Amino acid sequence: MKNSKIQDIEEIGEKIKRPKKWKKVLHKIEQMRSSQTAPVDTMGVSFVPDKNIIEISPQIFHFQVLVNALLSSQTTDQKTSQAVDQLNSSLKILTIQNVIKTSESQIASLISCVGFKNKKANYLKRIAEILHNKYNDNVPDNFDDLVKLPGIGPKMAYLILMVCFDKKEGLAVDTHVYVISRRLGWVSKEDNNPEKVRKELQRWLPRENWKEFNKLIVGFGQEICSKIKPKCDQCPVSKYYSNSNSNSNSDSDSNSDSNSNSDSKIPNQKIPNQKIPNQNILK
Ligand code: SF4
């Protein structure tokens, strides 16, 4: 992919330059997603509450969202959901108080299906103590306090703010958002880390689209445009690619697990040698 941001843009007002046809492409993805569910729809961060509990307080919901986000790093939605369910059933309900009462080793064993279980168990115990002692058993509703919590990075903080407090302060750029934004030419090739991609997307994507954006793109990545072996023959947006300048290596620096959620660097991905429509521009 060449620098589509520069080659193919539309000017909005004086300053904001957006990729051409971005709205149409997003709409096509929305249509595809409305007829085809993905793991993120039933196991994503906003679906954390114990399914056996009819109603939980906002306080507990916020904590469970945070735990889900914490566990989701480098882990699939399925495994994350399994771990949260396990915590909910074994602790009777996943609350700050119950995490404080439970030993770190027991928590590690309850979340054994996720990656880095020992580290995450340690983070979870420390977070529960901090929320209890410093925030009166509440999850903080601002970015600065969230990213001070052990194991909580910017992507998680933005998701938590969005899901818990309806605050659109930033876009959560995980593996799918990173890879797909680059494939679609929504960011330039030089935007080669999640932070650069986040900033570039935030520069032009209207804020009204932020809330649904992550879930929309993650589901698209889980079902169609996976990092490894994207199903281009089923892709609703392939026709928007130009036929010239075909390039299948445009996302050559993202990471490995196609369905995992990563809040960390996305280094050195090798995309398989398969034909992918031109990832340069959207016409
Ligand atoms: S054509 Fe293939 S690589 Fe391009 S967006 Fe669709 S699935 Fe992804």
Structure write-up:
The chain is built from 13 helices and 4 strands. It folds into 2 domains: 4-35 and 170-261, Helix-hairpin-Helix base-excision DNA repair enzymes (C-terminal) (Endonuclease Iii, domain 2, Orthogonal Bundle); 41-165, Orthogonal Bundle (Endonuclease III, domain 1). By secondary structure, it is mostly helical. The model is unreliable at 1-7 and 243-283 (pLDDT under 50). Helix 7 (104-110) packs across helix 8 and helix 11 packs across helix 13. It is globular and about 55 Å long. The strands form 2 sheets. Strands 1-2 form a two-stranded antiparallel ribbon. Strands 3-4 form a two-stranded antiparallel sheet. Iron/sulfur cluster binds next to loops.
- What's the end-to-end separation, in Å? 14 Å
Taken in chain order, the helices and strands follow as: HEEHHHEHHHHHHHHHE
The computed structural class is: mainly alpha
CATH class of the largest domain: Mainly Alpha
What secondary-structure arrangement, pairings included, does this model have?
Blueprint: H1 4-7, E1 9-12, E2 16-19, H2 22-35, H3 39-43, H4 58-72, E3 75-76, H5 77-90, H6 96-101, H7 104-110, H8 117-135, H9 143-146, H10 154-165, H11 175-183, H12 194-204, H13 210-223, E4 260-261
Antiparallel strand pairs: 1-2, 3-4
Helix pairs in contact: 2-13, 4-5, 4-10, 7-8, 11-12, 11-13
The structure holds iron/sulfur cluster (SF4).
